[in-house]
Write a structure and sequence with these properties.
single chain; 107 residues; alpha+beta; five-stranded mixed sheet; 2 helices; 5 strands; 27% strand
């Protein structure tokens, strides 16, 4: 059931913008295994898409949070039923290129 949900969400992910798109933001994520994954989004998009991207990635845990290193904070990116979408990348103050960390809540 979880794998089916992941494939449905993966189909909904918006296309990755070109690197030279004026509104693009480059997100690098360090995942618990030590690997790094990377993807571009539009700064005007909700950070729920970042959550969905991590949720669908094969090497990422199913129960996680996305955190910044400095200042240390957890990004409010997990969408909740019956609530408005999480803020955009721009609204939470992320720059053109960011390194974020996937924290495994089960670890």
């Amino acid at each position: 059931e979880k794998e089916q949900k992941k494939s449905e969400i993966e189909r909904l992910l918006p296309p990755e913008p070109e690197a030279n798109h004026p509104d693009s933001i480059r997100i690098m994520l360090k995942i618990p295994s030590g690997c790094r994954i990377e993807r571009r989004f539009l700064r005007s998009q909700s950070i729920k898409w970042l959550f969905y991207y991590v949720f669908c990635h094969k090497e990422c845990p199913d129960d996680f949070q996305i955190v910044t290193n400095f200042p240390k904070r957890t990004l409010p990116c997990e969408p909740r039923d019956n609530e408005t979408d999480p803020p955009t990348f721009e609204e939470i103050g992320l720059g053109r290129s960011e390194m974020l960390f996937v924290h495994d809540n089960q670890a």
